[in-house]
Amino acid sequence: MEPRWIDGHLDRSDGFPRADWDAVLPHIIERVPEAELRDAITSAARDWLTATRDAIGGAYRVEESENFLLLATFPTKTAAGLLAFLEPARRRILTQLLPGVAMVKGRGKHVAIVFDDIEKYYSYIAYFYPPEGEFAASGGVFVQRGYGRRGWGYGHFVLHGSLIRGIERTVAHELTHNCLRHLPIPGWLNEGLAMTVESIVMGDGGLVVRREDIDEHRAHWQGGAIQEFWSGAAVHRPDDGSRLTYHLARMAVKALSSDYERFREFVLLADRDDAGEAAAMKVFGRGLGGLIEQFLGPGDWAPRPEGWGR
């Protein structure tokens, strides 16, 4: 492949080079032997990041490790330390924390872009969101395709900030999402797994649930609001509902995962269309409403997908 050939497939209309992966990836796959695909796709991603670096300007540099490409303004030593954290975190997710569930679907290296300016961060990720609406604030996201687009995409992590500990935490969370994207799992399960893995990788203490937490959850989720949890809509709320969604999701994952083999079977069967209800019935012999009842007491907690308005 010619050096920087990908430049001809970059749309720069919004100030950031957006690669047309629907053209780039088939172009590579048609011309490169299977054994060389990873290197060729990684080379294209590297050139795309280099073009992004040039467009952003400033002190941004592209750094690299065995499985990651990083675009950031960190000093070389700091960037090397971040990459040294990411490599074992990746191995741990795949082989220890979520064996038989997590996998890496893409053929190129993971890509992480860390903006040192929050305005640039939101300008960059706007491409992946609807043009209108309110969305929860974020420290980082895993993105793949522009809003309304279909096709290949190149999944990558986009973050902002300068505190390495916070960057490590966010990437551990988003890396889990990356390693689950081959599964059609519901949003609550996806976030619960990411929160759980993030906490373990970062060495946090165990999940603490106080009596006042339960009272807050019960007050928030009653009256049919629990359907936003099951449908996934609550994850994107710009208010306190997002925080409660993540917390309840982590509680649910903890309750279901005490027997990992059964939990693994559930995760592999769970489907977002019914929030995992059929999988829960098959694997655990009861529905998800009973799971929530363990925490919040009696109530109408079961998923009702017919009312989600999809």
What does this structure look like?
The chain is of the alpha/beta class and 310 residues long. It has two domains: 5-182, Glutaredoxin; 211-307, no CATH class. Helices cover 49% and strands 9% of the residues. It contains twelve helices and seven strands. The strands form two sheets. Strands 3-4-5-7-6 form a five-stranded mixed β-sheet, with helices on both faces. Strands 1-2 form a two-stranded antiparallel ribbon. Strand 4 (68-72), helix 3 (76-97) and strand 5 (110-115) form a beta-alpha-beta unit. It is globular and about 65 Å long. The relative contact order is 0.09. The mean pLDDT is 93.
Give the key terms:
310 residues, alpha/beta, Glutaredoxin, 5-stranded mixed sheet, 7 strands, 49% helix, 9% strand
SSE blueprint and pairings:
Blueprint lengths: L9 E2 L6 E2 L1 H11 L5 H20 L4 E4 L3 E5 L3 H22 L12 E6 L2 H8 L14 E4 L12 E5 L3 H17 L6 H15 L9 H11 L4 H6 L9 H16 L3 H10 L7 H8 L3 H9 L14
Parallel strand pairs: 4-5, 5-7
Antiparallel strand pairs: 1-2, 3-4, 6-7
Largest sheet: 5 strands, mixed
- Proportion of beta-strand residues: 5-15%
* CATH level 3 topology of the largest domain: Glutaredoxin
What is the number of strand segments? 7
Strand arrangement, largest sheet?
3-4-5-7-6
Order of helices and strands: EEHHEEHEHEEHHHHHHHH
User: What is the domain tally?
Assistant: 2
The first-level CATH class name of the largest domain: Alpha Beta
The end-to-end distance, rounded to whole angstroms, is: 43 Å
Helix content: 40-55%
Total helices: the number is 12
Class of secondary structure makeup: alpha/beta
Radius of gyration: 20 Å
- Large-scale geometry: globular
Unreliable sequence segments: none
Average residue pLDDT: 93
